[in-house]
Design goal:
alpha+beta; two-stranded antiparallel sheet; two-stranded antiparallel ribbon; 8 helices; extended
Length: about 220
């Protein structure tokens, strides 16, 4: 990937001979070796994991694969955020091919796909299939990166969910918002900090009608 030798040397030394102990109510355990994983809380860890995943995707040949969808004249078949990966294809066969390639390359470097968290969403009915004896679940909606995604692209379910979450928080903080001991400006700051981000999270991708806009404005 074009990384300088002295940088890889530094990282190898940083991770060489890692040991850890577990603190319990009765004291600490004996020290033991850590054979895999990145340092918890280290600022390098997210970057190292991204490089790790990128290497898997390249070895799986996703950059050269013809499978995917066209967006602005570019062929895109995967989107990655942290350890969440989304494959976008136009057929069931292409999806199987990409998933199996990534699975094989992941296992080569010690990673395993969590099939319990792997879901398939399609705009048309598809047959269920299995990987290593585990059925890959087909769903019509699911929560992805904090937003509810549906197969038909309808955002009304996500908007309702956000408004319901806002209502629950409003109920919990009702005594604070009605308190005479708290200034109005503090209450306004509280609403802006806690309620608006919750309701408007992911709104950039919403496709809504005028009636739904009025309901949001009413909030």
């Amino acid at each position: 990937m074009g990384i300088a030798d002295h940088l890889t040397y530094i990282l190898r030394n940083l991770y060489a001979g890692q040991e850890a102990t577990v603190r319990t109510g009765r004291g600490t355990t004996d020290w033991f070796q850590i054979g895999k994983g990145v340092h918890q809380g280290c600022i390098l860890s997210p970057c190292l994991f991204k490089l790790y995943v990128e290497c898997i995707m390249r070895n799986a040949g996703l950059d050269e694969a013809q499978a995917g969808i066209k967006i602005a004249e570019r062929n895109i078949n995967n989107l990655i955020y942290a350890d969440d990966t989304t494959f976008m294809v136009e057929s069931e066969e292409e999806l199987k091919s990409l998933l199996m390639k990534v699975k094989e390359e992941s296992e080569k470097v010690g990673l395993k796909l969590n099939m319990q968290k792997t879901k398939i969403m399609a705009s048309s009915p598809i047959t269920s299939w299995q990987i290593d004896g585990e059925t890959v679940e087909t769903v019509s909606d699911f929560i992805f990166l904090g937003s509810k995604i549906t197969a038909d692209g309808d955002c009304s379910h996500e908007i309702k969910r956000c408004l319901l979450l806002r209502r629950k928080v409003m109920t919990k903080l009702d005594c604070i918002l009605k308190s005479r001991d708290i200034t109005l400006s503090t209450k306004v700051h509280l609403v802006k900090a806690m309620f608006f981000p919750m309701v408007m999270y992911g709104c950039e991708s919403w496709t809504i009608r005028k009636a739904r806009c009025q309901r949001i404005d009413g909030f």
